[in-house]
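The records we work with from here on pair a chain with its fold. The integers have meaning only within a learned vocabulary of local backbone shapes. A complete example follows; check for yourself that the lines match position by position.

:::
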Amino acid sequence: MRKIIILIVSLSIITVEVASATSKAMPLNKENVIACAIRIKRAIEWVTPQEQQMMIGNTDFSKKIITRIMVQPITVDGYDFEKTVLAIVAVVASGNLPLDLAHKTGLLFILTSIYGSSSHLVSYGLMSQSTRIALEDAVQQVVK
């Protein structure tokens, strides 16, 4: 039993080191985008009503949930959250969205999901204000 606990602790430490070891944006290929969109969707669905209630007026807990829902689906594979958001914004701003419907839908789902939480992401120091402005501009371009 003790060896298993030590193994779990060791794996957690390795995971944290790998996740923080890179400062690259997630490559926006179809497979990565769809996997990330699914992780965000599942993370949103897994927030319980009790957790939603606990978020009200509890900044630390709210930050933990927002991180779990929006940031970790990108950083779990070692990619930088903000750089990935900016990469998605750049694709949308260029007007060169993928023709593949699943790929395009995944990109737009990630973009709009993060946009919906952008004020919290900025207030918790998880995203810069300049990225939020770029994100808002990209969403407005999609809505037009």
Q: What stands out?
A: The chain has one domain: 23-143. Helices lie at 2-20, 30-45, 49-55, 59-75, 81-94, 101-116, 118-123, 129-143. The longest helix spans residues 2-20.
